[in-house]
């Protein structure tokens, strides 16, 4: 495992980066706010089906996606709202999709677990754990084949490291030097089971076995995640890929919104500790205020503005129309 | 017209499409210098290089997944799956990912890829290298399925498949790679969903796919000698299926046998027979008969294996009974 860094974002001039930092903060708050609203939609029985909350992991998606260009690709997971927002998606289309409405990103045909936003390079969330690892590697293959400098980030959880597909595609990515970063969001739980019970050995060791340079980073520190990702993205563009990052993080909610009584696998004390002492948004807010980049009032105003945006988007989505019945057999085949 | 083998026809189709479109590439096991165990791809790596004729490790789900992602981002992969039996290994990538991406994204993403693989028993390869599994994928909305019955179809369907914006699975009969057929020098494409009436007849319709087209044609010869006029139709693609041509023929002949090398139960023969039943019932003089492969794993011993697939004699015997209006007993609804 390497922890070397050529640039330490935290030490860089705060004033020079003020705009970037505030955008990162805004994106993290947008994810948290989106999820709070999505959770409410579920609890108030206004959302069909269920969903998997990203809250607690915001620094991972934002730190990584802020290092990418719009043309760079990502693949996402069943816990994918954070990736979608961080890669540039709008609340309105996202809430419409969660509610199965025509104006959703996928015209209501995908829902929470399949949101794709190809205009921003998001190739889609995937409801098969580990199912997108081939897709991400294939996107990187296209970049190499067609001589584009696009980089692909493959998001997946610690649970997906148990899937065989990961080893097959990492092997090929390493053999062919593909411009891809495998981003393992290690939130400590594979559904309702502790990661320690499903993963033998080290997570980064899996990538290193293929000769892939692997890093472990604090996934609650958006600047650390962003700084590392920027370096790796740059190196991917120069043909030095692939890379692997294990991001240590935590999901505040259960496996999905309906996983309420979860003390049989996770204690309330543990959850409380992460929320109170390791929250990525609170932590970054402290950094912004202590560095004089923003005042607490300014951050609160930003939060309020985002909250209002989300409320308006939810209202819009609740009233938006469902797809017409004629759409049911539309898009089975491409023209 | 010149005659070339089915293997050469596939090779020509790939070479022509790769020259035409630089986003087309081939990916699979031993596709480059080895040109596959059946030597279908020989010479392609010499022309197009290893960047576009890509040898992979033995990792079918992995390279299938890579092809899906490549197709979603602007490439047109042709995946080489060495044996049709290995399709079980790639089912998630093919059926959960490739087949559903266009629909799940509300039409925003598409997966223009071709999966080339094969089918067919009687090569003495036993149960894991002899299956005809096209019905499995034909069941999944979002996939198209082509079954070439000769070198001519193999070339024209492959070119159409590569230009299609959907995942297309092409099953070639591995026993036909060295069989020759007339293939024009000039370029041609065979549209999907257009059946080919191979032989016209008036007493019974034999609907047959892939290698079973030859079986049906031989059966028609046997029947002709006895004064029974059989029409032979090759659907060429089972998804999309040219239902209209099949129904029109059956309304004319009033009898039909559907012959396909997949297992008979829950298979292609069942699907086509059922559609004829629904849409041509009042024109029928006899039940539509299914003749698929026996519902057994393909056995190794030649003495057993040859019993499992339909033969010209078996088809002719069943046709004779249908035309005579005789009841069919249980044993006749199986192969041979």
From TrEMBL, chain A:
Its cofactor is thiamine diphosphate. It comes from the Bacteria. It catalyses: N(6)-[(R)-lipoyl]-L-lysyl-[protein] + pyruvate + H(+) = N(6)-[(R)-S(8)-acetyldihydrolipoyl]-L-lysyl-[protein] + CO2. Keywords: Oxidoreductase, Thiamine pyrophosphate. Residues 26-325 form the Dehydrogenase E1 component domain. The pyruvate dehydrogenase complex catalyzes the overall conversion of pyruvate to acetyl-CoA and CO(2). It contains multiple copies of three enzymatic components: pyruvate dehydrogenase (E1), dihydrolipoamide acetyltransferase (E2) and lipoamide dehydrogenase (E3). This is ABC transporter substrate-binding protein. It comes from Hoeflea alexandrii.
TrEMBL record, chain B:
InterPro entries: THDP-binding, Transketo_C/PFOR_II, Transketolase-like_Pyr-bd, Transketolase_C. Residues 4-179 form the Transketolase-like pyrimidine-binding domain. Pfam families: Transket_pyr, Transketolase_C. Its cofactor is thiamine diphosphate. It comes from the Bacteria. Keywords: Oxidoreductase, Thiamine pyrophosphate. This is Alpha-ketoacid dehydrogenase subunit beta.
């Amino acid at each position: 495992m390497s922890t070397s860094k050529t640039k330490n974002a935290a030490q860089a001039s705060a004033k020079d980066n003020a705009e970037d930092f505030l955008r990162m903060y805004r994106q993290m708050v947008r994810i948290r706010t989106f999820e709070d609203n999505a959770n409410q939609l579920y609890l108030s029985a206004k959302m069909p089906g269920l969903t998997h909350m990203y809250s607690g992991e915001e620094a991972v998606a934002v730190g990584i996606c802020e290092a990418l260009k719009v043309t760079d690709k990502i693949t996402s997971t069943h816990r994918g709202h954070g990736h979608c927002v961080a890669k540039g998606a709008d609340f309105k289309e996202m809430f419409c999709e969660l509610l199965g409405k025509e104006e959703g990103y996928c015209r209501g045909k995908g829902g929470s677990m399949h949101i794709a936003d190809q205009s921003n390079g998001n190739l889609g969330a995937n409801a098969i754990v580990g199912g997108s690892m081939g897709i991400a590697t294939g996107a990187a293959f296209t970049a190499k084949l067609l001589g584009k400098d696009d980089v692909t980030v493959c998001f997946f959880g610690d649970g997906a490291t148990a899937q065989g597909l990961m080893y097959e595609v990492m092997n090929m990515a390493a053999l062919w030097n593909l411009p891809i970063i495998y981003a393992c969001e290690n939130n400590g739980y594979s559904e309702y089971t502790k990661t320690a019970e499903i993963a033998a050995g080290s997570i980064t060791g899996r990538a290193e076995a293929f000769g892939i340079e692997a890093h472990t980073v604090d996934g609650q520190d958006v600047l650390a995640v962003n700084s590392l990702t920027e370096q790796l993205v740059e190196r991917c563009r120069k043909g030095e890929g692939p890379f692997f990052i294990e991001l240590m993080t935590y999901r505040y909610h259960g496996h999905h919104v309906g996983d309420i009584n979860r003390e049989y696998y996770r204690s309330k004390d543990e959850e409380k500790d992460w929320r109170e002492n390791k929250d990525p948004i609170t932590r970054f807010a402290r950094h912004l205020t202590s560095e004089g980049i923003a005042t607490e009032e300014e951050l609160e105003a930003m939060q309020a503005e985002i909250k209002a945006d989300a409320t308006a988007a939810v209202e819009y989505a609740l009233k938006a129309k469902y797809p017409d019945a004629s759409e049911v057999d539309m898009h089975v085949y491409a023209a | 017209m010149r005659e070339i083998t089915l293997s050469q026809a596939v090779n020509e189709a790939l070479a022509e499409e790769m020259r035409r479109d630089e986003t087309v590439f081939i990916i699979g096991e031993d596709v480059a210098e080895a040109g596959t165990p059946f030597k279908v791809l020989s010479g392609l790596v010499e022309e197009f290089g290893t960047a576009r004729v890509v040898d992979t490790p033995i990792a079918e789900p992995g390279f299938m997944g890579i092809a899906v992602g490549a197709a979603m981002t602007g490439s047109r992969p042709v995946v080489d799956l060495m044996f049709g039996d290995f399709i079980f290994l790639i089912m998630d990538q093919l059926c959960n990912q490739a087949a559903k991406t266009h629909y799940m994204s509300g039409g925003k993403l598409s997966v223009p890829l071709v999966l080339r693989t094969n089918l067919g028993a009687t090569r003495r390869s036993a149960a894991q290298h002899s299956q005809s599994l096209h019905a499995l994928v034909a069941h999944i909305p979002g996939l198209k399925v082509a079954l070439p019955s000769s070198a001519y179809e193999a070339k024209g369907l492959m070119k159409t498949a590569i230009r299609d914006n959907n995942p297309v699975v092409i099953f070639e009969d591995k026993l036909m790679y060295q069989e020759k057929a007339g293939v024009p020098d000039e370029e041609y494409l065979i549209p999907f969903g257009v059946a080919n009436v191979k032989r016209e007849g008036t007493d019974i319709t034999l609907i047959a796919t892939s290698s079973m087209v030859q079986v049906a044609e031989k059966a028609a010869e046997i029947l002709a000698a006895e004064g029974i006029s059989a029409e032979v139709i090759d659907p060429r693609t089972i998804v999309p299926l040219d239902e209209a041509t099949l129904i029109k023929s059956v309304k004319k002949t009033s009898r039909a046998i559907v012959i396909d090398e997949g297992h008979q139960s829950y298979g292609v023969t069942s699907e086509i027979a059922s559609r004829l039943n629904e849409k041509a019932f009042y024109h029928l003089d006899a039940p539509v008969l299914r003749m698929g492969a026996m519902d057994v794993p393909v056995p190794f011993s030649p003495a057993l294996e040859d019993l499992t697939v339909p033969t010209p004699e078996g088809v002719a015997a069943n046709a004779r009974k249908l035309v005579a209006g005789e009841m069919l007993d249980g044993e006749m609804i199986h192969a041979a």
